[in-house]
Amino acid sequence: MRSLLPGARAAAVALVTGVVLLAGVPAALAEDTSRPTVDPAAPTPTAPQDGGPAQGHAPDGSTVGGDGLDTRGLVTVAGAPALPEGIDAHGWVVADLDTGEVLGAQDPHGRYYPASTLKTLTLLTLAPALDPALVVEGTTEDESVEGSRVGLVAGGQYPVSLLFDALVMQSGNDAANALARAAGGVPATLAAMNATAQRIGALDTVAGTPSGLDVAGQTSSAYDLALIMAQLVDDPTTAAILQQTTAQMPAVPGKSDGYQIQTQNTLLTEYPGTLGGKTGFTDAARHTFVAAAQRDGRRLVVSLMQTERYPVSTTEQAERLLDWGFATPTGSGVGTLVAPGEVGSDAASAGLAVPSPPTAR
């Protein structure tokens, strides 16, 4: 397990089952008719949207990142090399993290189901809000959560820092559940996640679960995943979490032996210069992925939505697009990754409490 970050207030460590740390964040965002609406009462999606996803725009009808990204098709910068073969993602983006230039994209603002890539937004939202030394007690609800689990058990005691590792490395839905509980509960966490998405300009993203499990109306886009990853790799705390490859889960006497977990992001070991990434899969979303890498002083982000593992795996598609991006010259872009606050935020105008960007502790 990674060491707890310096400066953590050890005396404040406590066993928690529901500590409200996101005070002032309401249970729902003000209605924004330009964004999807989560409907937990509707049937859970089990397949990609019929006819494809809706295309996202800002509330004023403009396209976030520039008019060049107002497309359902393919767009690349002038002078770019030929795109690699085997890219079957319905939506994807490759962008330069240092200049903000979008080098190429396919349906960048298509509002797809995100699956567990949404956990990048969970991390971005909760990392600045939760003390990494805080200990969260596992519950029977954690044990029975749907989908991928890291193996939390009732009565187990798990530092927030370890839960973040489990969230990213093993895509633990039980870890997402425990982190949301520590942050005041799922409704407060979702409100904060949606406010964070608004703040950074990720207007295609609406969170309905902290884990990314499918719920009607929950969406994101290749463009938004790139924005979220850009924020994560620029902060030392979250960048360190994305770099983790192994961690140690503690033993719980009479219930669970201690064991090691490993990252599911094979780019960390297979693709030199990888800064981090997050995998995702559900029947409705299919495979999703977002990652960042650096080469020769240049940093790129790649995101893929609704793709398949065959005949070319999702991670191999990401590697091919990163190679293509590194071979594409700088100095031009088909659009840009917006900076936080650059796009008008309905959350701010409605007086909602928007979490601050992560800062190193």
Query: H/E order of the elements?
Result: EEEEHEHEHHHHHEEHEEEHEH
Percent helix range: 10-25%
Number of helical runs?
10
Amino-to-carboxy terminus distance:
18 Å
**Poorly predicted spans:** 1-21, 23-33, 346-361
The helix-and-strand class reads alpha+beta
Mean pLDDT: 88
Tell how many strands the DSSP assignment holds.
12
Proportion in β-strands: 15-25%
Largest sheet: 7 strands, antiparallel
CA-atom Rg in angstroms: 19 Å
* Principal-axis shape: globular
Relevant terms:
seven-stranded antiparallel sheet, alpha+beta, 361 residues
Written overview of the protein:
There is one protein chain. This protein is an alpha+beta fold and 361 residues long. It contains ten helices and twelve strands. α3 (160-169) runs antiparallel to α4. The longest helix has 15 residues, at 186-200. Residues 1-21, 23-33 and 346-361 have low confidence and may be disordered.
Summary?
With about 350 residues, the chain is α+β, with helices and mostly antiparallel strands. The protein contains ten helices and twelve strands. The strands form three sheets. Strands 2, 3, 4, 9, 10, 11 and 12 form a seven-stranded antiparallel β-sheet that branches. A three-stranded mixed β-sheet has the order 1-5-6. A two-stranded antiparallel sheet has the order 7-8.
